[in-house]
Amino acid sequence: MDVPSSLPAFCVLLPGSATMIGALSGSSAKFPIRVENFQNVPKMSWNNNNCSMAVVNDALLADCHSSSKRWLKLENSSLVLQSVEKQDEGNYEFCFNDTKVLFTLKVYEPIIDARCFPNGTADLTCDVDSSESMMFKWLLNNSRLDANEACIKAGGKKVRLEKTVPGEFVCTVTHSHGFMRTRPIVLSCSYGE
Ligand SMILES: *[C@@H]1O[C@H](CO)[C@@H](O)[C@H](O)[C@H]1NC(C)=O
Ligand SMILES: *[C@@H]1O[C@H](CO)[C@@H](O)[C@H](O)[C@H]1NC(C)=O
Ligand SMILES: *[C@@H]1O[C@H](CO)[C@@H](O)[C@H](O)[C@H]1NC(C)=O
Ligand SMILES: *[C@@H]1O[C@H](CO)[C@@H](O)[C@H](O)[C@H]1NC(C)=O
Ligand SMILES: *[C@@H]1O[C@H](CO)[C@@H](O)[C@H](O)[C@H]1NC(C)=O
């Protein structure tokens, strides 16, 4: 990806393109920067906004935008941005020791849906707009939905309930470095007479 740079010219980009980082909404995004500590205050830009930076106890406080000050913690040579939200998406540039590294952050939000059919069955769907591998599981009233109650298809993205049962359904998504629960859905099927 060709990203117009806002960082100073002495900050040299090593060959290679921006690394895609995917994170589930509410979980942490890890930018592997391979830096053990901050000798100098690193430079950073987010979506081409220069950020003003402060280093406090091996964490960075980045002010990239009038409304969003964010902490980035250094953990295991990665910068960790906690509780990411959709608005954290975009292009991140860091400059350490005159070397520039680029990342593109994508934040995944699962989409859930429930549909009742006139014959008393129902479909639940849970999906994430990503080609990365993720694991989908369903809970009913906080217990794992079992195969007697439901036919689980497409690796958990789709569930057919043979009969609708009262209770709260929650989809859980596990990603290589993140986990999230969706808001609960309560099935309310009305079948008329
Ligand atoms: C960001 O900072 C660099 C270096 O100080 C400067 O050349 C560039 O114009 C700035 N970019 C923006 C968008 O302010
Ligand atoms: C950055 O430079 C300092 C001082 O020259 C050096 O000690 C440090 O290891 C360098 N860090 C990286 C990530 O290259
Ligand atoms: C750091 O890496 C070690 C070894 O890979 C791992 O055991 C540990 O959980 C990691 N810590 C964090 C905070 O990610
Ligand atoms: C119930 O209706 C749905 C949607 O029309 C259909 O796909 C499903 O096979 C039906 N199930 C039974 C047990 O009749
Ligand atoms: C789930 O909990 C609700 C409220 O406590 C209860 O009415 C319902 O019967 C429970 N459903 C199942 C399948 O246990």
Automatic annotation (TrEMBL):
Residues 110-188 form the Ig-like domain. PROSITE patterns: IG_LIKE. It comes from the Eukaryota. This is Ig-like domain-containing protein. It comes from Bambusicola thoracicus (Chinese bamboo-partridge).
